[in-house]
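Researcher: Please predict.
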Amino acid sequence: MTPAQSPLKSTSMFSALSAILSVLLLTATGWFLRHRNLIARERWSGMEDLAYWVLFPAMILYNVGTSDFSVMPVAEISIAVLGTFTILAVICLALQPALKNRLQISGPRFTSIFQGVVRWNGFIAMAIAANSFGEEGVALIAIIMAIMIPAANLLCVFILSVYTGGLVPSPKTLAKELIKNPFIISVTAGGLINVSGGYIPEVIANYLTFLGSAALPIAVLCVGAALDLGALRRPGPALTTALLLRNMLAPAIAASFALALALDAISATIVVLVFSVPSAGASFVLAKKMGGDAKLMAEILTLQTVAAAITIPAWLLVVAYLIG
C-alpha cells in the first residue's frame, strides 16, 4: 500500500464504521418504538410491505439504470458471492447428520439453521453500503441481489421440502415466485435501462430518488421492530451453530475469496458485508409457510442481528487491514 492510498482507505473505513453505527441506532429506534407500542403492531407490516414492494425497487431501479458497471469487477464479485454461498451450503449439509444424531436437531430445526446461514438481510446490507459508498455501493448490492435472490430462494425451498417432509414445488411454481420478486423486477428493468444508454428523464429520476431516499430508514426501522430480545434468554446448540456459521465463518470465507480474486477495497468490503449481515427476515415467512421451525428462525434472526453490532465492524476492520 502506498502512502497515498492510506488516507483514502482510512477515510473509507471510517465512513463504513460510521454507517454501521447509524444503522444500529435506527435498528434500536425501531425496537424501542415497537417495544413501547408507540406504533401498533399491524402498522409495521404495512411499512415492511411499502419498503419491499415500492421503496427499495425504486432505489435499485435508479442505481442499476444509471451506474457504470464497466468500471466495476462484476465477474469477480459474482464468483466470490456464489463461491461463498456454495461453500456455506455444503458445510451446512455436511453438518446435518451430526446435528441430528449428537444434538437431536430435527429436520425442521435444521432448515432454520440452513436459512440462517445462507440467506442475508439485503435491507441492512444496502443501508450500510449506501451510507458508506453511495451509488456505487447500492449498485453493487443490487447486482449481488440479482445473483443471490434466485440461488438462495430456490435452494432454501428445496431444503425445506426435503427436511420437513413436504413436496418440492414444481419448476413452474418456483419460476413464478422469482418473476414476481420486486428486487428481481427492478434489477432487470434497471439493467435494460443501463444497456440502452442509462437515460432516465429528470422527472422520473427525481421521483425514483425521492422514493429511494425513504427506503433505507423505513426498512431498518422495521428490522428493529421485528426483534424479539426475549429469544436471547433461550440459547442452545441450534442458535449457537447458526450464529457461528453466519457471523464468523461466512465473512471469513468471503474475505478469502476477495483476497484470492484481488478485489479492490470497496468491492471486497461489499462482498464481506453481504456475508456479515444477519439472515433475511423473509426466512421466517418461508419457515412458517413450508413447515420449518419458525420460532427458532425468529430466535436466530434476533441473535444474529444483536451480535452483528460487534461482528460487522470487526470484519470490516479485518478487510481494511488485509486489503490496501
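Model: The two ends are 5 Å apart (CA to CA).
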